[in-house]
Amino acid sequence: MYVSTILVDKPSQQELHQLAMQTVGQDLEAQGYEFIAVNSQPKKDPQFVCKLNKKLFFVLVRASVYPENPNSFDSVLINQLKSHAEKFKAELFYAGVGFAHAERYDLPLQKSQPYAVNYNGLQKV
């Protein structure tokens, strides 16, 4: 008996992070934020340092895949970043971006298939 398996070309964590960064970056740009620094490495925080009306902002970006909730964040990490932001008199935002297969969320993500994006904007923390 011979069983074959079809390999699914899933996006890597780095690719998902880049898509999340692109989503959040476009949102920040549309709102008029000026980029001071951009760190596109996953878990190298914060990902965006920007200004709006002379005020400094740190933005933490995280990508997740359904059924994970993109709005959930690590409170220990957030507290560390809050402390860091306070040193620079910056406000801290969390930007969670969720991805799912566009046709059925329970199907795995594939590079060759359309995907849905769940992004509810910046969350002040």
What is the structure about, briefly put?
With 125 residues, this protein is of the alpha+beta class. It contains two helices and six strands, in the order αβββαβββ. Helix content is 25%, strand content 32%.
Describe the structure.
- The structure is a single chain.
- The chain is α+β, with helices and mostly antiparallel strands and 125 residues long.
- The chain has a single domain, classed as Trna Endonuclease, Chain: A, domain 1, CATH 3.40.1350.10.
- Helices cover 25% and strands 32% of the residues.
- It is built from two helices and six strands; from the N terminus they run αβββαβββ.
- Strands 1, 2, 3, 4, 5 and 6 form a six-stranded mixed beta sheet that branches.
- The longest helix has 18 residues.
- The N terminus is likely disordered.
Descriptive terms for the model:
125 residues, alpha+beta, Trna Endonuclease, Chain: A, domain 1, six-stranded mixed beta sheet, 6 strands, 25% helix, elongated
Q: Regions with pLDDT < 50 over 5+ consecutive residues?
A: 1-7
The helix/strand series, from N terminus to C terminus, equals: HEEEHEEE
Q: Could you tell me how far the N terminus lies from the C terminus, measured between alpha carbons in angstroms? A: 56 Å
Shape: elongated
Predict the CATH topology. Answer: Trna Endonuclease, Chain: A, domain 1
- Average the pLDDT over all residues and give the rounded result: 91
The count of domains is 1
- What is the SS-derived class? alpha+beta
Quickly give the CATH architecture: 3-Layer(aba) Sandwich
Radius of gyration (CA) equals 17 Å
